[in-house]
Design brief:
By secondary structure, the protein is mostly beta strands. It contains one helix and eleven strands. The protein has a five-stranded mixed sheet with strand order 1-9-3-6-5. It has a four-stranded mixed sheet with strand order 2-8-7-4. A two-stranded antiparallel ribbon has the order 10-11. The radius of gyration is 31 Å and the shape is globular. The N and C termini lie far apart (77 Å). The relative contact order is 0.23.
Amino acid sequence: MERVYDVRDLMVRPGIVVLTPGFLTVVDVDEQVEQAVSARSDLFELRVFSNSIYLRPTKRAGTTDLVVTAGGRVFLLRLVIDEKNFTTYRYRVRYPQQTTDFPTPLPESKTASRGDASVKGDVPFRGSLPLPGRGRGCFWSTGC
């Protein structure tokens, strides 16, 4: 059986993780697990390998917390040992996709040489131009 949590939800409210005596429970996290601690480590055995936490209950019943640090975020799980359940569980903790508010960068323009001057292609012109007719501007719609 599998359950998926969003890490943003677990940062505010603990997610329930069911442990069954005689079975291994796996919590897969999208980021590297840096630390996992609990107030009642006597209730279960814990192993962390890279992005996964493996849990095996050592008691027939009990409830405790598990505070996990992964990818720079701290999230909460509530471990519940249920001896009446006979299922192996897998939980996934998903991190949101990284998005930026920055526009997509434009492709690099190529530099072409014209005489002694170096000119970049596809670059908008910046500078001043002499205005026609005694300093008056000429607009295309007026016909100059």
